[in-house]
Write the structure tokens for this entry.
Amino acid sequence: MIEIHVKQDIDVPTEKVFSFIADFENNPRWQKGMQSAVFTSEGELRVGSTYDQVAHFLGREIRTSFEVIEFEPGRSVAIESRSGPFPIRVRRAVEPLTSGTRVTADVSGDPTGFFRLAKPLMQAMVRRSVVKDYEQLRALLEEAS
């Protein structure tokens, strides 16, 4: 099992940060290797909402369907893969700081198939990737403010 926990402080109001990270269609704007993310359910974000994404990782295209399994408006959202070669669960949460917002991300998954062969390297690779993504998120949101 791979487990990653990341914290990133962003000098942007909590509401703006949460709104951005809870809209999964924004993922390609700040996550390296992410090609697309498109909601497949209608209506406002809620538990049960779904989306599909396409990403590239280790030279392979990865198509994954996700479902929202937890949603606390303005505070946290968690998703879990429903298809794809890498079963994964991601929880994103925000908390206000004196100036700005702290974003936390908890990522866990258990690689299968081709990715299982690379499991010894996956923890470090995924951690490095997630840390860089959240640094990119900070830069993107602070630049836009």
Summary: The chain is about 30% helix and 45% strand.
